[in-house]
Amino acid sequence: MTRSFDVVIVGAGSIGTPTAFFLAQEGIRTLVIDKLASVGQGANKAAIGGIRATHSDRAKISICLKSIEIFSTWEEEYGDHIGWVQGGYSFVAYREQDEKTLKGLIELQKQYGLNINWLSRDELLEVIPDLNREGLRGGTFSPGDGSACPLLAVHAFYHRAKERGAEFHFGEEVTDIMVKAGRVRGVKTTKGEYSTGCVINAAGPWARKVANLAGLDVPVRPDSHEAGITEPVERFLGPMVVDIRPAEGSANCYFYQHYTNQIVFCITPRPNIWGEDTRETSVFLPMAARRIIDLMPRLANLRVRRVWRGLYPMTPDGSPIVGKVRELEGYINAVGMCGQGFMIGPGLAVYLVKMVKDELSAEDEEVLSGLSAYRDFGGEEKLK
Amino acid sequence: MRDGYRIQKHPILPVDGREAIEFYWKGKKLLAREGETIASALFANGIRIFGHHKKDGAPQGIFCANGQCAQCMVIADGLPVKSCMVQVTPGVRVEPVDGDPKLPPVEEVPRFGDIEEIEVECLIIGGGPAGLSAAIELGRLGVRTLIVDDKHRLGGKLVLQTHKFFGSIEACYAGTRGIDIATRLEQELQQYESVACWLNTAAVAVFSDQKVGVVRDGKEYVLIRPDVLLVAAGAREKSLAFKGNTLPGVYGAGAFQTLVNRDLVRPTEKLFIVGGGNVGLIAGYHALQAGIAVVGLAEVMPQCGGYKVHQDKLARFGVPIYTSHTIISANGQDGVESVTIAQVDENFKPIPGTEKSFECDTVLIAVGLDPVDEFYRKAREFGMVAYAAGDAEEIAEASAAMFTGKIRGLEIARELGREVGEIPPDWLRTAEVLKSKPGETGAESLPEKDEGVFPVLHCVQEIPCDPCVSVCPQECIVIEGDDIRKLPRYTGGECTGCARCVAICPGLAITLVDYRKDPDYPTVTIPYEFLEDTIAVGDVVTVLDMEGQVLGNVEVVRVRNVKANDRTILIGVKAPREIAKRIAGIRIQEERVTEPMDHYVERLTDDVIICRCERVTAGEIRHFIREGFTDMNALKFPTRAMMGACGAKTCANLIKRIFREEGIPESEIVENVHRPLFMEVPLKVFCKVEGDSHDKEL
User: Fold this and answer.
1) What does DSSP say about strands A331-335 and A199-201: parallel, antiparallel, or unpaired?
2) Phi/psi at B97 (nearest 5 deg)?
3) Which ipTM value was assigned to this complex?
4) pLDDT tens per residue across span B42-55
5) Which of A41, A232, A288 sits opposite B100 (nearest CB)?
6) Which residue in B220, B231, B182, B226 sits closest to B198, CA to CA?
7) Which candidate in A168, A237, A302 is best for mutational testing of the B interface (most B CBs within 10 A)?
8) Which of A163, A263, A304 is best to mutate for the B interface (most B CBs within 10 A)?
9) Fewer CB within 10 A of the terminal residue: chain A, N end or C end?
């Protein structure tokens, strides 16, 4: 007998797992299917854990403010420690053009409810005393942002979703999304068949393949980013520090102190490294180490423990693609998070539940309009 | 200066008594020997607790003393280091790690240089018996070879082996002590100009762009692109799950040998050994040689896995061997005060009521080795031409490692286009022979005659070893056929009483019985490798049979220590003819040393630690396995097991074992993903910082 679910989510990662939790919370019968062996084994576990509402567009600011609300109250609500630290984010400026770009966004950011201010050089050094002072002009500071542990958080969402009746099938790959008369009817997998009227594509780097199963296309393709983590040291760093200056081989660089007191660091490779290769290279460490020591000399003696490489599901303009599609009823995109799935996930889950229940308000619709699959993809994200 | 924690005299090793270096521990001035590691210097000053874990405040000490785990971390001049790998420098200020270390301030951005990239034909990771032997073959053929080794001298674990080696003399220096084999290999290698050695150089990663990252002297990062990679990185000691398994004083048998035989530190007064393989048995012997009491050895199987000659030797010296016994707990608050063991049933479960406790300050774990094969696995994954040799390929004796190293050397040379012809088929056969596990054990058969002089071979288990055959000038010790794994036999032929066989036998398993002077009280010659001043003519000693049964007390009539016998002293005792042929050794340790306590000690805390770095207990792992976790990567999420400094080097196998105990088939278990770095490296090392001056000032 074919089992039936209200919603089938493809992908038990940063988006699929919290979405399953909030759906199950509403009593919606939910099945999550993931080809990997357990929760969060795709892009989620490669996420570094930064959570910010400091974005340059209304949709992500609103969604991430919601995420922050969920992350910051999770332990209190549900009792799970997820490593939440409200250390804030700081985009630092050493060049006039960066100061201009960052200052230029503040008004819009505030308008959508973000607590953010420009700090002068001296004010910023009070928040982050170890920054390289030479040439420092100041920077933004958004104290409401923070970080959590992707591993603990996804495990908590998973655990609580199961508790509320959501089912998770691992090591099972969706092979077909069954469509009849313009409507989703179910999914076929390597292990069976399930009937459902609603499929949420939350397949991260593999979102395009999943969309293709429904006869659809979505402009998501993965590129790869390397990250590193150090040994733990006594807490000395509050916010995530983001340097948006490009350098040879990288578009930016950022790091923060994790709840374990380890420093997690990352760069955005430029040019992009397209594809699904997640094997570590010899290029990353020398490139990243220079950048971060230059930004914060105190990190020179900090020992690197591990490096890894993960995938960003990229879209042409650097913003996610979220929502129902005109071509197929019952199919929902929650894809193209461009490396921000972890911070977007819980907030977006709240919107997705309303979407499934057809309860989106006009304001919600307005927030999500920027993430429409039918938008003009010509623009570019300013705070990537 | 008098110092209770240093070995002042050793029967095999030269003792250089100079404590020339001053350093500080918690602000107090202490003395160290030049060249020794911080860990050894601390032990030599009686310090066994190097800090406290931030998670639960548990005291931390050494476990591997080999750079593999990360438990021995201390702060040296403001920076965290592995104390077992870093040498003491004059004036260095060493502090314990209590909680997270403080990152020292750095005022200026250092000047960066370019990371050096070099190409070699063959890169060898590990300069132990396998790596050196391979390098000698490669050197002979002019192959441009680089050996990197993370220690301060070549030889790998050979430098810890004070005993004479098994095997055959021509193939692998049988009858020569491991420490001396290391020196010979090193000298042989020096004549080959195409081979370079970088000591104190750790391989930290193999990357997908086919480069190997190494760190020289803890500060210089070099990327090496080899045509062929040979991984000869040896093995690491397995951990074991029991209550109190991370107390300071519980550590690997290899770590113990490092402290005692390499660094001549006396880390303990009284120890207990868990594991009856060769490593555990030999560690017991090394302890006795260093004047350390061995209160017992527990082996969970009904028989010890190590060579019977090692086991018998230990039993004769007065060390009780508890087969079918397991360790229940190491007891104590800040260090080991006692150990509790119990007998096991056929399913290896402890039998209640059989518990016994012994007073001791140290528990050595010798429950097997795991290959250090992460470099090899990564290299293969990334499509490099890679070989493995020695323990990194397959755990076996060092003699086998030398031989597989030689073979890999030739194979690599051939891979690189050198004319090497066929690998000699007898090499391949010898390699297999040397790797072979002990074969059948027979009963001891004593020669029937009671006259003249002849050797008695207390050697009843088939192991690959034949130096006794090689040294007998009369050819009256033989092995049938040409398989050195078979038992040697005295032919009954004319023996001159030269006692060369007695002196060379690595198992100390040959005696010589001489009836010529007094047929009723023949003289029995027994090999002895303890301090010469512990025995003298006229002493009455307890003699025992092969397996350690007491035969009686007899008088010492001769003590002969000649250079040719390479520190094996030959003791002559006068014994009644009824027992003379059965005498196999002299008791060293008094029985009272090994008596159990009158009650057994129960450890109540639930501290069976699986992941040492993050201090994750067996209970936590079991909980999630019972929840349905079969992906080892998923276990990381809620527990942090496998995510610590060592990179799952010690805990992954213990976790697999819990899966087995919980009845999860191996096919369902998903292996944990391995990522570099294989050890922690300061960020600045990746930028080739010019000058290092601010280091010293901190």
Assistant:
1) parallel
2) -100, 105
3) 0.94
4) 999 999 999 999 99
5) A232
6) B220
7) A302
8) A304
9) N
